[in-house]
Design a protein that fits this description.
The complex is a heterodimer of chains A (390) and B (133). With 390 residues, chain A is an alpha+beta fold. In chain A, 49% of the residues lie in helices and 21% in strands. Chain A has helices at residues 2-25, 44-50, 54-57, 68-83, 128-138, 141-168, 174-205, 218-235, 255-271, 317-321, 330-340, 365-371, 374-383, and strands at residues 29-33, 39-42, 88-94, 102-113, 116-126, 214-216, 239-243, 251-253, 278-285, 289-296, 344-350, 354-362. In chain A, strand 9 and strand 10 (289-296) form a beta hairpin. In chain A, helix 7 (174-205) packs across helix 11 (330-340) and helix 8 (218-235) runs parallel beside helix 9 (255-271). Mean pLDDT of chain A is 81; it is low at 366-390. Chain B is of the alpha/beta class. Chain B has one domain: Response regulator (Rossmann fold), CATH 3.40.50. Helix content of chain B is 47%, strand content 18%. Chain B has helices at residues 17-29, 40-50, 66-74, 92-101, 113-132, and strands at 9-13, 33-37, 54-58, 84-88, 105-108. Chain B has a 5-stranded parallel β-sheet, with helices on both faces. In chain B, helix 2 (40-50) runs parallel beside helix 3 (66-74). The model of chain B has no long low-confidence stretch (mean pLDDT 84). The chains are: A alpha+beta (390), B alpha/beta (133). Chain A binds chain B through residues 73, 76-77, 80, 84, 86-90, 107, 109, 146, 149-150, 153-154, 156-162, 164-165, 168-169, 176, 179-180, 183, 235, 274, 322-323, and chain B through 15-19, 21-23, 25-26, 29, 41, 44-45, 48, 58, 60-65, 67-68, 71-72, 75-76, 89-91, 108-114.
Chain lengths: 390, 133
């Protein structure tokens, strides 16, 4: 009996030793959390990567130092592990003081004892370098084509599937038939827009597109732009809030170009706003210029991406990682058109809080050519006024 | 095939309601029982609850993508055996990751419903023959 006990103890201590060696030498990070998400154990690799002793890591929350937009997602993942008792895989980026951002791919599993989750076991690896490499690749010409390819494939897939289903199911009820026909129509429109955008950005760059001005009612352009974006907003439960005076000083501008700027900005806001979000369109009538804002309470733009967002084919990190539709041409086209109208376009954004695109257009392009810098100087003054940024 | 596959249950996962609507209708018309889930979490819960014969999932979804769903399902003993079909508009790169992570099949958008049905049918037959062995 005593001999059995000693043998069991020896085996247990051998197992513990083996276990410790694995924990100390594995290149993976390993940690244990209590059900509230507080770290109760961390292996040496995690300490090495975080450049902190184990004592400083234990007792902190796993969601501490996470990038702001990831906190609620990580908390939901942990809640699922505990409540639903299912393992969850996720990617997390930590911003530790005095260090470059670190990205980990982790798998968290529930540890169950007597029917209750008493802890969460996490295992993961540092993928910071892979993410950096992916971002560099994303900046190449090839990836630009990839964005267009992705948009084409998604849209064509819907059209092909709906046509197939309509053709194969003659007995389909009328409501469904017309709903499917509507999807085909919308997606064909979308396809045309992709082709148009790709061709137009080239023509614009080559100076092949000329815009002739006319007196336009901004309120009408806003209404038409909203109508064009309505379907997508409804699908994503996004609410429009519009403030646009019906009576305004006349604006001399190319109607189609103005409408396209509005559509592109509104679509961009819809694509980067989560379900049930809000988009505000605010038009202010000044004596010498018109000021338009398209704001959203969406995901916002990280500081390091702000300078690139008007570049053609540029799609933000969040667009690359998640299924945000688009080819990365909408904002580039909007900027080109606003510039052609003698106006200015700018952006103010806070990650996790939302984005505000501002546009100012001179009331008459004649003022610019006749008075030279005067009106542009005023536009610049608005552009650089921090009070116009959120 | 129509009407003969009532016993088989398919779970379709996609954040795009139009794809869910399309595949639910098209696969139901082929005789399958079809459940739909708009995100990875709901999909995992449904997989545990309904034990589908095949799961068809999109890859690019917000918060948790198709890979995260697959990893969760494969590490859960209740769902590990369910064959997965990945659907994506991304071509080769995704396909490689997809197979590595445990996908049984991979379909690239724009796919034909016929192609998808064939793949589902062959996975169901495979599972059936394993059961009978």
């Amino acid at each position: 009996m005593l001999a059995d006990f000693s043998r069991e103890n020896a085996a247990a201590s051998r197992d513990a030793g083996l276990w410790r060696i694995i924990m100390e030498t594995t290149p993976d990070i390993v940690y244990v959390l209590n059900p509230e998400g507080v770290i109760v154990e961390a292996n040496p690799q995690l300490c090495r990567i975080l450049r902190q002793p184990r004592e400083k890591i234990v007792g902190t929350r796993i969601t501490g130092n996470l990038e702001r937009d990831q906190i609620s997602v990580a908390e939901r993942v942990l809640k699922n592990v505990v409540d639903k008792r299912i393992a969850q895989r996720s990617t997390r980026t930590y911003q530790l003081p005095g260090m470059e951002a670190l990205t980990f791919e982790v798998m968290e599993s529930p540890l169950v004892r007597e029917g209750k989750v008493w802890a969460i076991a996490g295992i993961g690896r540092d993928i910071t370098q892979e993410v950096l490499l992916e971002r560099k690749l994303w900046d190449t010409e090839e990836s630009h084509h990839w964005a267009v390819d992705f948009a084409f494939r998604t849209t064509l897939g819907l059209v092909k599937g709906y046509i197939y289903t309509l053709c194969r199911n003659a007995g389909m009820d009328e409501e469904r038939r017309s709903r499917y026909a509507r999807v085909i129509e919308e997606e064909m429109e979308h396809l045309s827009k992709i082709v148009e955008d790709v061709l137009d950005i080239r023509r614009m760059e080559n100076g092949e597109i000329e815009h002739s001005g006319e007196i336009v009612k901004v309120a009408d352009c806003v209404r038409r732009a909203l109508l064009e974006c309505e379907g997508e907003a409804q699908r994503r439960d996004i609410e429009f809030n519009v403030n646009c005076p019906d009576q305004m000083h006349p604006l001399w501008a190319p109607r189609e170009a103005l409408q396209r700027v509005l559509v592109n900005l509104i679509q961009n806001a819809i694509h980067h706003t989560l379900h049930e979000g809000k988009v505000w369109i605010d038009v202010r009538d000044h004596e010498e210029y018109v000021e338009i804002h398209v704001k959203d309470n969406g995901v916002g733009i990280p500081d390091d991406e702000i300078s690139c967002i008007f570049d053609k084919y540029y799609r933000g990190k969040s667009s690359v990682a998640s299924p945000v539709p688009g080819t990365g041409l909408g904002l580039a086209i909007a900027r080109t058109l606003v510039n052609a109208m003698g106006g200015k376009i700018w952006v103010c954004s806070r990650e996790g809080a939302g984005t505000d695109f501002g546009v100012v257009l001179p009331r008459r392009p004649m003022d610019i050519s006749e008075k030279g810098e005067t009106d542009l100087w005023k536009l610049d003054a608005i552009h650089s006024n921090p009070a116009t940024c959120r | 095939m129509r009407g003969s596959a009532d016993a088989y249950r398919i779970l379709v996962v996609d954040d795009d309601a139009r794809y869910l609507d399309l595949l639910q209708f098209a696969l139901t018309a082929e005789g399958y029982r079809v459940d739909i889930a708009p995100n990875a979490l709901a999909a995992h819960e449904m997989a545990v609850l309904n034990k589908p014969d095949v799961i068809v999932t999109d890859i690019a979804m917000p918060e948790q993508d198709g890979y995260a769903l697959a990893a969760g399902l494969k590490s859960d003993t209740r769902t590990a055996q369910i064959p997965l079909i990945f659907v994506s508009a991304r071509a080769q790169a995704d396909r490689n990751i997809g197979y590595r992570i445990g996908a049984a099949e991979y379909v690239t958008k724009p796919f034909s419903v016929d192609e998808l049905v064939k793949k589902i049918r062959s996975l169901v037959c495979e599972a059936k023959s394993k059961d009978s062995v």
